[in-house]
Design brief:
Distance between the termini: 10 Å
Strand content: 15-25%
Number of strands: 5
Strand order of the largest sheet: 1-5-4-3-2
Helix content: 40-55%
Number of helices: 5
Structural class: alpha/beta
Radius of gyration: 12 Å
Largest sheet: 5 strands, mixed
Order of helices and strands: HEEHEHEHEH
Amino acid sequence: MTVNDLIHTNLFELVNAGDDLDREITCPFCCDLLSIAMGKAPAGCAWVTVMANMNTLAVASLTDAACVILAEDAKADEIMISKASMQGITVFCTDMTIFDAALSIHNKLQP
C-alpha cells in the first residue's frame, strides 16, 4: 500500500500531503518517545503517535518514515503543518487510539 492508497482509504483525516505519495508503507510503527522512535522506527513505516509537534517531523525525516499519523485526537498546530509542508511529510490525524490506528494500517497491508 502506498501513502496515496492510504489517503484514499479515508481511514484518517489528511492534514498535509507530502512530496512522495507513491511511497510504499512497509509497516505501522507505534511510539511516543521520540528518542526511541529515532533509533527504532523502520524506514517506510506509518508512524502512529500522539506527539503533535515539530520534533516529531524531525524524527520522521531522520528515520525516513513514509507518513505520520497523529492518533487519539492529537492535533497538529499551524507551525507543525507549515513545517510538514516545507519538509514534504505526509501527516494524518484521527480520533482512533494508537492501537486501532496501527491495526487499521496492519490490516490494509495484509494480502
